[in-house]
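The following record pairs a protein chain with its ligand, protoporphyrin IX containing FE.
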Amino acid sequence: MNIKWVGAKKTIYDAVGGREWFEELVDHFYENVEINQRIRHLYPDDLTLPKKNTSDFLIQYWGGPSDYSERRGHPRLRMRHAPFQIGFEERDAWMDHMRNALEAMNPTIEIKEAMLEYFEMASTHMINVEI
Ligand code: HEM
């Protein structure tokens, strides 16, 4: 038998199947941004870089390779979002798009709940306008 020891703890990155899974998730997310138009105006016309930035970040966050920080440095997400006006409406639109993208990827319930918890928390943290 050829059993390879891969360590006691599998990361979420490994559990979903690696880079491609996150790239697909992020493609779905930006597809929703395009179709829905609620926050499309905040993003540049060309979504190539936002796609790459978002998927590299999520790959790193969930235990994959740290390409994001090698290319962009420390994430400092709140600071990087400061140029965009993010209120409750923008936050909710972002969250809806990500929730739909996640549904489309059909992860296990544990992974879905872990990601939703993170996204809820982090997207709320990105709100930077007073209402
Ligand atoms: C869980 C919450 C969020 C995460 C993990 C996240 C992640 C990211 C990342 C990694 C970047 C690229 C930063 C860089 O390297 O320059 C980015 C950019 C951006 N985000 Fe978010 N974001 C979140 C919430 C939001 C929300 C609520 C909005 C508001 C609608 C938003 C709008 C944008 C915009 C407009 C950009 C610029 C696009 C670009 O050039 O990359 N984000 N986000």
